[in-house]
Inverse folding.
């Protein structure tokens, strides 16, 4: 299936429009009030694009073919769809939690190590515990997907 120029440029244009308000924020050239306004614009633009894509998908359904003349049917139950959604949420949310944990633990571990080199092993354990949260979420996702069949 060949993509048309609009199918290539429209997503790129939407990504650029979503990220434009945050460029000055990342460079640190805005006030706090302006940064809040730009962040709100970014979030509103993101959800606007999501709604736009969902509405577009309802009216424009692409045809999927395995071979010429043999249509592929991708049909599943509501339970399977919700199972895949829960697996994705388990992985995503656990990775987000692990990122927050490591973001808090890693600088503290570096600070403890810089003060006393004997604290390296102890501080590394706390960083690894934060990463374990993501591994547990991935394990739960694998268990969910295995039970969907």
């Amino acid at each position: 299936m060949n993509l048309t120029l609009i199918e290539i440029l429209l997503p790129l244009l939407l990504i650029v429009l979503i990220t434009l308000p945050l460029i000055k924020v990342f460079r640190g050239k805005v006030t706090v009030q302006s940064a809040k306004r730009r962040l709100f614009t970014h979030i509103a633009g993101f959800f606007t694009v999501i709604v736009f894509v969902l509405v577009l998908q309802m009216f424009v359904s692409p045809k999927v073919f395995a071979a010429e003349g043999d249509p592929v049917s991708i049909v599943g139950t509501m339970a399977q769809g919700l199972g895949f959604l829960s697996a994705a949420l388990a992985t995503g949310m656990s990775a987000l939690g692990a990122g927050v944990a490591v973001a808090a633990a890693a600088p503290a571990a570096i600070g403890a190590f810089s003060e006393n080199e004997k604290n390296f092993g102890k501080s590394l354990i706390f960083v690894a515990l934060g990463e374990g949260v993501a591994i547990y979420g991935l394990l739960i996702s694998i268990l969910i997907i295995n039970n969907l069949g």
Summary: The chain has two domains: 5-68, 78-146. The longest strand covers residues 65-67. The two ends are 30 Å apart (CA to CA). The first helix runs from residue 5 to 19.
